[in-house]
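Renewal narrative, Specific Aim 1. Our central claim is that a sequence can be written position by position from structural information alone. The example that follows is taken directly from our test logs and has not been curated for this report. It begins with the structure tokens describing the chain, in the order in which they were read.
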């Protein structure tokens, strides 16, 4: 995600943040300990009792990792996950399958900082291939906690061959032999067929967990119904300090059913940072160790009791460290969360986020952008 410090803010510069965090994270490339909850996680009631790390689940040996990260518990398994993961939409797309150096550095920084969750999809252009290339070069492909998706309708009703082939292709692109940790029905596409298939794949040991995903609040009521009756392990939903509709729908149902929640677009694809350009952080943010707008927005998201992992995307390793800072220190209580929303509502551009283009001022010239331009050039109609 493309972050911006507030101009004139008392927060340190990116350079200061990165230097401080890099020292604190030295030697953190190992797996999370599986011996129990961190002090921070326990303080927030999200890790009672011993849990299992992603590495331990895969049979890998545990190693040194930061001990002060906020971990969240996967309700159905007790598995412990760092509360900030890494998304890949647009930011990991590329003109070719070859992994750009910037992507490799983002992945390395996320892993060495204690991040373990990586989210991808075959819909994201070259993202699976670039992520796989990065993790292979770093030797972490079999140890990361990967959440991927199924995006297919099949050649005819109830035909599952395409979806199963897609899963095999995803694993090949990710350079992955071990089962995908979470496979989700992307945007509810063909869900009447996809969800039974996901349950079959889980029963057969071809995936570890199953779920559904969407980014559009217009589908939240439908998502809620599937959370309530689909016997899901995970649900992925768009949720941020700006887009809060999931609270009374998907998040409520997930909490009631013991379903883990992955959050996409927690930074609104850089639009939140764009809205606060030139604005200072509120003084009360310091009470929660918040020194950047990134931590402000992400701490708000992961402080919701139902949220398991937030998935900000970025193409800049310095921004990974800013995002990781949200996993340290106290989380806002409900009254403070409301205060944070009220503060954002005083910022004029906050109300215009929904009409602001994704990644303002940035361009990701991958296969997705190229295909979009070609279709726009051909078509006499385009959605507004």
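The sequence written for that structure reads:
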């Amino acid at each position: 995600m493309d972050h911006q410090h507030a101009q004139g803010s008392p927060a340190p510069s990116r350079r200061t943040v990165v230097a401080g965090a890099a020292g604190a994270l030295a030697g953190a490339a190992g797996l999370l300990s599986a011996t129990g909850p961190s002090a921070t996680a326990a303080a927030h009631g999200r890790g009672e009792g011993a849990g299992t790390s992603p590495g331990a689940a895969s049979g890998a040996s545990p190693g040194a990792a930061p001990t002060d990260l906020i971990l969240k518990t996967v309700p159905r398994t007790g598995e412990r996950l760092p509360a900030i993961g890494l998304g890949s939409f647009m930011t990991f797309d590329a003109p070719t399958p070859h992994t750009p150096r910037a992507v490799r550095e983002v992945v390395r920084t996320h892993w060495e900082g204690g991040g373990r969750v990586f989210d991808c999809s075959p819909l994201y252009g070259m993202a699976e291939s670039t992520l796989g290339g990065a993790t292979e070069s770093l030797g972490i492909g079999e140890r990361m906690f990967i959440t991927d998706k199924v995006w297919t309708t099949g050649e005819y009703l109830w035909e599952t061959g395409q979806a199963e082939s897609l899963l095999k292709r995803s694993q090949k692109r990710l350079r992955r032999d071990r089962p995908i940790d979470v496979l989700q029905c992307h945007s509810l596409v063909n869900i009447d067929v996809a969800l039974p298939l996901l349950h079959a794949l889980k029963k057969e040991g071809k995936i570890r967990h199953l779920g559904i995903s969407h980014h559009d609040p217009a589908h939240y009521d439908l998502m809620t119904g599937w959370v309530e009756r689909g016997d899901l392990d995970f649900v992925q939903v768009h949720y941020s300090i700006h887009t809060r509709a999931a609270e009374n729908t998907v998040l409520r149902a997930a909490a009631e059913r013991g379903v883990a929640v992955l959050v996409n677009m927690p930074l609104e694809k850089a639009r939140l940072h764009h809205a606060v350009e030139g604005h200072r952080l509120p003084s009360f943010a310091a009470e929660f160790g918040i020194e950047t707008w990134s931590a402000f927005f992400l701490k708000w998201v992961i402080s919701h009791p139902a949220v398991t992992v937030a998935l900000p995307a970025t193409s800049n390793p310095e921004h990974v460290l800013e995002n990781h800072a949200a996993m340290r220190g106290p989380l806002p209580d409900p009254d403070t969360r409301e205060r944070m929303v009220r503060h954002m509502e005083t910022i004029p551009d906050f109300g215009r986020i929904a009409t602001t283009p994704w990644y303002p001022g940035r361009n990701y010239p991958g296969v997705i952008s190229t295909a979009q331009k070609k279709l726009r050039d051909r078509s006499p109609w385009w959605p507004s």
